[in-house]
Amino acid sequence: MLQIRSSLYRPLGLGIGLGLLVLSLLGSLLLGAADIHPQRVWAAIFDFDGSTEHLIIRTVRLPRALLAAGVGSALAVAGTLVQGLTRNPLADPGILGISAGASLAMVMAIFWGYGGAVGFAFAGAAIAAVTVYWLGSLGRSGLTPLKLIIAGAALSYLLGALTTGILLLSQRTLDEIRFWLAGSLAGQNLESLGTMVPYLAMGLFLGLLLGRPLTLLNLGEDVAQGLGLQTIWVKGAAAVAVVLLAGTSVALAGPIGFVGLVVPHMVRFGVGTDYRWIVPYAMILGGILLSVADIAARLLIRPQELPVGIVMGLLGAPFFIYLARSRRKQT
Amino acid sequence: MKLTPAPWLTLRLRQLPLSLRIDRRTPAVVLGLTILAGVALIVNVSQGEYRVPPLEVVKTILGLSADPDYTFVVNTLRLPRALVALLVGMGLAVAGAIMQGLTRNPLAAPEIVGINSGASLVAVALIVLVPTAPIFSLPVAAFMGGLGAAIAIYLLAWNQGSAPIRLILVGVGLTAFTGSLTSLMITFGNIYNVSQALVWLTGSVYGRSWEHLWPLLIPLMVFLPLSLLLARDLDTLNLGDDLALGLGNRVEQKRSLLLLCTVALAGSAVAIAGNVGFVGLMAPHLARHWVGASHSGLMPTAALVGACLVELADVLGRLLFAPIELPCGVITAAIGAPYFLWLLYRDGQRATQ
């Protein structure tokens, strides 16, 4: 595998990545159910005339392109932080109960007739994550990665059972929510995107700041403490960042799996173990990956569309199996 | 540490070349669990819209009751369902015990070998895409789906041997893949069929009859004893591949046999009842807590714990919101998750002592 180690190549790779991200954003604007000429797309953004085509670009495709890139980046960085924090390569933001909490909150909101608003999902995600952290730190041994994962898995199961219970009682709720539950970027406007942007930006910024302390933490807790790192603060900050990032993502786009799991692996193959580089690379790669997956989700069964969560699963799972297979024999 | 009398019982059979070394507490625990399972079964059969007094239930089952109403309600409607619940619990629990032993991971469950994901995919496809299919094709199709997924995982994970960690990882990947296809059908299927599929996905023994019981009983009668015979090999495999090899164990052969048992047991349980979650995870834990980690004693105990769990979950699911019935899978998950959290809490306390 190509290793980007030299001090010159890493910024260069980051630049190329940014270029690709812009390209995939453009692709997201140009491609869709309606055929719109690239010149018209350009005009829609810089010379708006109120025609249907321009409205499609401005109110549907532009928010969606930004949403795909933002959610992809957020999920990838959240996954990177969770994997760094738990030192478990299989950890995924979903493991902290965030997806399950958001799903239950959305299902409850729709069941009791409040409609599905991003606020409910975000609140559900945050409450679930805080509960998992609290449960994981019970006992005097404090917060250990294993306890965190077990608490997350158990709480996800419980919340999932409650969600299923409600869906079984109310077919109407099931019909309204099932597209969201599969993970989809459809139907969000700039307004709801706007309410979430500050949290998203805060999470990404915090993630970038955590690069160096996380690298140290991965040397082992004792070593990190010996080097003068306040591990408890690092863990706390990482936890806050994960909740902000994964919470906003799931609120905006439903539970999308695999971005948070796969992207950190791909990045580590390329840039090694230094989180100062892993985090920005993951941010860009996650944005590209979800943008491309979303374009595929819109084009595969035109004029209908697939939930992007399903496309991610179908693309991501074979890659994950390939990763697992390539591990040498070990017991 | 206090000196206690030897905590082991050794059973040797004169006719068969078999000896079992079990924890001293096992017989009492097994007896207690058998009684509990029996009581749960009788309660499950006696409760419902039409109540049958528990004593009459016993009489009717034994064929001593002449009342035709009781005979119909008990023998035709409720008894097969209650028995299916018991057997499903046994199959899942032993499959879970084997998986936890093989992977040396206390969080492993039969789900890892892909049984549930494969069975779910095929069952949901059948319910959503071919709603007119005859009702008995569902368990057969689900079993084939589970088997197919298990074989696919084993083959994909084979890389100069079948290391448990790769089995787990490939299992996670394949589960995600089939899960995406399943949720594709959930998203676009007819809403009524999707509702039905959701009940199956949650795990339910609703409406199971004698025709469902036999296809479950026969594989269990073959593979439960086989698992018990392999219990000692599982103990050695549990020490790690290198040590097991050193002790003269044919690691790959035994492991594939044990995997076959898991697939057959969990596969037939899932085929009949759908994804009843957490039983395969929880039952071995409880059993290990009571009778220790030696698999000869652990397996029968886990089987009975599983039987009690599913039976009690079914009772609760039927009674909690009567006349609306919750699938027993919802109840096992709702019980299982807090149990796990409690385990976590207890281990945290113990670590500090």
TrEMBL record, chain A:
<keyword id="KW-0813">Transport</keyword>
<feature type="transmembrane region" description="Helical">
    <location>
        <begin position="190"/>
        <end position="211"/>
    </location>
</feature>
<keyword id="KW-0812">Transmembrane</keyword>
<dbReference type="Pfam" id="PF01032">
    <property type="entry name" value="FecCD"/>
</dbReference>
<feature type="transmembrane region" description="Helical">
    <location>
        <begin position="232"/>
        <end position="258"/>
    </location>
</feature>
<keyword id="KW-0472">Membrane</keyword>
<feature type="transmembrane region" description="Helical">
    <location>
        <begin position="148"/>
        <end position="170"/>
    </location>
</feature>
<feature type="transmembrane region" description="Helical">
    <location>
        <begin position="118"/>
        <end position="136"/>
    </location>
</feature>
<dbReference type="InterPro" id="IPR000522">
    <property type="entry name" value="ABC_transptr_permease_BtuC"/>
</dbReference>
<dbReference type="GO" id="GO:0033214">
    <property type="term" value="P:siderophore-iron import into cell"/>
</dbReference>
<dbReference type="GO" id="GO:0005886">
    <property type="term" value="C:plasma membrane"/>
</dbReference>
<comment type="similarity">
    <text>Belongs to the binding-protein-dependent transport system permease family. FecCD subfamily.</text>
</comment>
<feature type="transmembrane region" description="Helical">
    <location>
        <begin position="278"/>
        <end position="301"/>
    </location>
</feature>
<dbReference type="InterPro" id="IPR037294">
    <property type="entry name" value="ABC_BtuC-like"/>
</dbReference>
<keyword id="KW-1133">Transmembrane helix</keyword>
<keyword id="KW-1003">Cell membrane</keyword>
<protein>
    <submittedName>
        <fullName>Iron chelate uptake ABC transporter family permease subunit</fullName>
    </submittedName>
</protein>
<dbReference type="GO" id="GO:0022857">
    <property type="term" value="F:transmembrane transporter activity"/>
</dbReference>
<feature type="transmembrane region" description="Helical">
    <location>
        <begin position="62"/>
        <end position="82"/>
    </location>
</feature>
<feature type="transmembrane region" description="Helical">
    <location>
        <begin position="94"/>
        <end position="112"/>
    </location>
</feature>
<feature type="transmembrane region" description="Helical">
    <location>
        <begin position="308"/>
        <end position="325"/>
    </location>
</feature>
From TrEMBL, chain B:
<keyword id="KW-0472">Membrane</keyword>
<feature type="transmembrane region" description="Helical">
    <location>
        <begin position="112"/>
        <end position="130"/>
    </location>
</feature>
<dbReference type="GO" id="GO:0005886">
    <property type="term" value="C:plasma membrane"/>
</dbReference>
<keyword id="KW-1133">Transmembrane helix</keyword>
<feature type="transmembrane region" description="Helical">
    <location>
        <begin position="136"/>
        <end position="156"/>
    </location>
</feature>
<feature type="transmembrane region" description="Helical">
    <location>
        <begin position="257"/>
        <end position="278"/>
    </location>
</feature>
<feature type="transmembrane region" description="Helical">
    <location>
        <begin position="168"/>
        <end position="192"/>
    </location>
</feature>
<dbReference type="Pfam" id="PF01032">
    <property type="entry name" value="FecCD"/>
</dbReference>
<feature type="transmembrane region" description="Helical">
    <location>
        <begin position="212"/>
        <end position="231"/>
    </location>
</feature>
<feature type="transmembrane region" description="Helical">
    <location>
        <begin position="28"/>
        <end position="46"/>
    </location>
</feature>
<keyword id="KW-1003">Cell membrane</keyword>
<dbReference type="InterPro" id="IPR037294">
    <property type="entry name" value="ABC_BtuC-like"/>
</dbReference>
<protein>
    <submittedName>
        <fullName>Iron chelate uptake ABC transporter family permease subunit</fullName>
    </submittedName>
</protein>
<dbReference type="GO" id="GO:0033214">
    <property type="term" value="P:siderophore-iron import into cell"/>
</dbReference>
<dbReference type="InterPro" id="IPR000522">
    <property type="entry name" value="ABC_transptr_permease_BtuC"/>
</dbReference>
<feature type="transmembrane region" description="Helical">
    <location>
        <begin position="82"/>
        <end position="100"/>
    </location>
</feature>
<comment type="similarity">
    <text>Belongs to the binding-protein-dependent transport system permease family. FecCD subfamily.</text>
</comment>
<keyword id="KW-0813">Transport</keyword>
<keyword id="KW-0812">Transmembrane</keyword>
<dbReference type="GO" id="GO:0022857">
    <property type="term" value="F:transmembrane transporter activity"/>
</dbReference>
<feature type="transmembrane region" description="Helical">
    <location>
        <begin position="324"/>
        <end position="345"/>
    </location>
</feature>
